Amino acid sequence: MYTQALNEKDPNAGKDKAEDPVLEARFQARVDEEMRIEPNDWMPAAYRRTLQRQIAQHAHSEVIGMQPEGNWLTRSPSLKRKAILLAKIQDEAGHGLYLYSAAETLGISREEMESQLLSGKARYSSIFNYPTLNWADMGAIGWLVDGAAIMNQIPLCRCSYGPYARAMVRVCKEESFHQRQGYDIMMQMAKGTPEQKAMAQDALNRTWWPSIMMFGPHDSDSSHSEQSMAWKIKRFSNDDLRQRFINATVPQAEYLGLTIPDPDLKFNEETGNWESGPIDWDEFKRVLAGNGPCNHQRLSTRQKAVAEGEWVRDAAAAHAAKVAARAANKEEAA
Ligand SMILES: [Fe+2]
Ligand SMILES: [Fe+2]
Question: How far apart are the CA of 92 and the centre of ligand 2, in A?
Answer without folding.
Answer: 4
